[in-house]
């Protein structure tokens, strides 16, 4: 179904440089702290997995990375650009930044009134600066890559969850992002669809795409990701090489979570 | 029973129908724009404007259309704002139906899940393009049935403009009836004419709703693009691309 003769994306292969750097990120809702001082580095080309109990702040942290959530305080550099100054002053051109950071959501969030094919072409022509023909070529290519070329003219409500999520990944990729954020991409899927989506993500990882993934899939964390961040109660409890953390977790809460 | 010399009144009837359709189109376009503007204001973060828009909507929803017509045509004249019949009639319809449409639009926009806004922002849409390119196209589909009902209702309500002698169909009917003393026959014919305008209109709008619900393209542009997409999807071959 998926081959590697051509990379899924034109993601930069230069590893080692820092794609995202976060220092001292704090965020609270209505006085209740959700993130209590996060330091995180995402190297370009690396796959970072965020794990932890629900309510531990993983998704909020992820959503802060493309500023869908505005932190209370933070020192944030994304793709070489300082993006956050204060909760009242963020980067003026957020749309341009967000086009470089794709995001895939738990609930897929395809545009329900458009076909799979149009879901992929529409953002490209509307805000990606591409012509209809360029966008269409890219859409066919990406649909083929995620194994859904035959479903191009289906509407979201005619597709399974797994198919929708793969279209959502293709739609995000169509904007040629340099970083992709995944917010529990398989949590709403059955085991078989989960496998299909993880396969696409794995291939993506092999092309050198920088990825930050919130997931409960221990298998993905172990087999695909380089770096594992374990979050608990708004703090990073433990982070390190993914296999090392999974095999011999140092933190008590990490151990309890992984043993469960 | 049928003793009215209809042939002599054909021109009057045609004029009446044209005037009715004119009020309908002008009134509906104006009400649509006003309704959308009010809905957007009510969903905005400007508290004072929000309050004003809500007050407007409640005001016009709770006054009979006839009272609105009288206020605008006769009422304003007493404070030296004299409007011609066409302006006063159109304005009344816009003011009244704008309030109703704003409620329909507001609930339709609110019904689009917030996730759609989030995913659009994440894809790099700005706030404004998210609203106009993603949210409104979905909201208008939801709003279609209610909006269609209002359009047909507006067409029928133009008959109230008889009270300011707007020369629409009902006014013409009254003139014919007073000349021929054949009220039953005249108003039966007029009722049939209203039916002949409203029924096809509502059937057409229902057909539109069904097509949209089924995801069929409405315009020739999108139909062409989808045909083109089908061909592209069919003929694509990754191997071919590498060789090329």
UniProtKB/TrEMBL annotation, chain B:
Its main location: membrane. The chain crosses the membrane at residues 20-41, 53-75, 186-208. The keyword DNA-binding does not apply. Residues 17-205 form the ABC transmembrane type-1 domain. It is a multi-pass membrane protein. Pfam families: BPD_transp_1. It is found in: Cell membrane. Keywords: Amino-acid transport, Cell membrane, Membrane, Transmembrane, Transmembrane helix, Transport. Belongs to the binding-protein-dependent transport system permease family. HisMQ subfamily. This is Amino acid ABC transporter permease.
């Amino acid at each position: 179904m998926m081959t590697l003769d051509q990379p899924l994306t034109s993601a930069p292969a230069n590893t080692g440089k820092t794609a995202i750097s976060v220092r001292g990120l704090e965020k609270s809702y209505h006085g209740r702290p959700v993130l209590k001082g996060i330091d995180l580095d995402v190297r370009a080309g690396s796959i970072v997995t965020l794990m932890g109990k629900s309510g531990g702040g993983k998704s909020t942290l992820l959503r802060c990375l493309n500023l869908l959530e505005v932190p209370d305080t933070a020192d944030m550099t994304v793709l070489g650009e300082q993006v956050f100054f204060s909760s009242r002053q963020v980067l003026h051109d957020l749309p341009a930044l967000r086009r470089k950071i794709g995001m895939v959501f738990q609930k897929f969030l395809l545009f329900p009134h458009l076909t799979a094919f149009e879901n992929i072409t529409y953002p490209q022509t509307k805000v990606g600066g591409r012509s209809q023909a360029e966008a269409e070529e890219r859409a066919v290519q990406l649909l083929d890559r995620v194994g859904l070329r035959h479903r191009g003219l289906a509407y979201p409500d005619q597709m399974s969850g797994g198919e929708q999520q793969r279209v959502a990944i293709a739609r995000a990729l169509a904007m040629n992002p340099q970083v992709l954020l995944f917010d529990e991409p398989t949590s709403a899927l059955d085991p078989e669809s989960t496998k299909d989506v993880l396969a696409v993500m794995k291939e993506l990882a092999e092309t050198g795409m920088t990825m930050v993934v919130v997931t409960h899939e221990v298998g993905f964390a172990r087999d695909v990701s380089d770096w594992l961040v374990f979050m608990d109660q708004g703090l990073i409890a433990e982070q390190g090489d993914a296999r090392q953390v999974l095999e011999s977790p140092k933190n008590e809460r990490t151990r309890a979570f992984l043993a469960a | 029973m049928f003793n009215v010399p209809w042939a002599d009144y054909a021109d009057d009837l045609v004029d009446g129908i044209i005037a009715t359709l004119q009020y309908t189109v002008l009134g509906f376009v104006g009400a649509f724009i006003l309704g959308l503007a009010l809905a957007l204001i009510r969903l905005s973060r400007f508290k004072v404007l929000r309050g004003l828009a809500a007050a407007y909507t409640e005001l016009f929803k709770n006054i009979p259309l006839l009272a609105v017509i009288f206020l605008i045509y006769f009422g304003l004249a007493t404070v030296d704002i004299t409007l011609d019949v066409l302006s006063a009639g159109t304005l009344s319809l816009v003011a009244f139906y704008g309030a109703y449409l704003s409620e329909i639009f507001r609930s339709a926009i609110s019904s689009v899940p917030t996730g759609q806004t989030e995913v659009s922002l994440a894809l790099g849409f700005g706030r404004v393009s998210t609203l106009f390119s993603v949210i409104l196209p979905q909201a208008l589909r939801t709003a279609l049935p209610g909006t269609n009902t209002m359009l047909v209702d507006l067409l029928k309500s133009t008959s109230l403009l008889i009270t300011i002698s707007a020369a629409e169909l009902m006014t013409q009917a009254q003139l014919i009836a007073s000349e021929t003393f054949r009220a039953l026959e005249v108003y039966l014919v007029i009722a049939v004419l209203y039916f002949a305008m409203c029924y096809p209109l509502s059937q057409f709008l229902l057909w539109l709703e069904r097509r949209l619900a089924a995801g069929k393209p409405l315009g020739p542009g999108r139909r062409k693009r989808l045909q083109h997409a089908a061909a592209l999807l069919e003929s694509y071959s990754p191997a071919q691309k590498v060789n090329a």
